[in-house]
Amino acid sequence: MTAPLTPPPPPHQPPSDEAHAWQAPPAGGVSGTVGYEPDGPGMKTEVLEAAVVTVVVAVAGVLLGVLWWWLAPHVPLIADDSAVYLKDTEGEQAIGVDGTFTLLALAFGAVSAVVVFLVRRRGGVPLVVALAVGGLLGSLLAWRIGIWLGPTQNVVAHAKQVGKGVTFSAPLKLGARGALLAWSLAGLVVHLGLTALFGPRDPDPYASPYGAPTPPQPPTV
User: Fold this and answer.
1) Which residues, in sequence order, are CB contacts of 199 under 8 Å at separation 6+?
2) DSSP code of 124?
3) 19 φ, ψ to 5°?
4) What is the pTM of this model?
């Protein structure tokens, strides 16, 4: 009697594609993030956009200058045969001129920051510098336009023109030069806040390639 023969083992089969389909890399690449996009359009494009923002914001200073000239209170002066005096020595019109410019500049800074953020939701150093520089240039332009539109700077000639004892308006001037920075500061603060609240987020370093979060693994001993 002979012992039953053991059947030979089946030939080795190569692994099928279905068995290893779960090992395919994610669509977003091998970096472990899904749908992750580059950080920005490139430095050259950012610099070009920053230049456009600087010019547009600076040109808006024309409107600020017109509004300042229109809304700022008038400082009344009066003249006699020897000198020109303030008609109301206890008046606060001069402070109101500076305050009007400051409030308008803060509003322009906030609006410009909102518009820039809505047009381009990404931040970046060039864009922030553009808001700061454009706001300063716009304030300087508004300051000069307001003075140009206001009463003449030659107070003596103006007093002689209106006559003795007649009230006339003083030249429009900005006593607090720090108000020229209000536009830039407001633009930077508002844009920073909008970027922090609604800007794009960095990818989660612990995110799984397949969408499920992967907790950090403890170190092995």
Assistant:
1) 121, 122, 123
2) -
3) -70, -25
4) 0.70
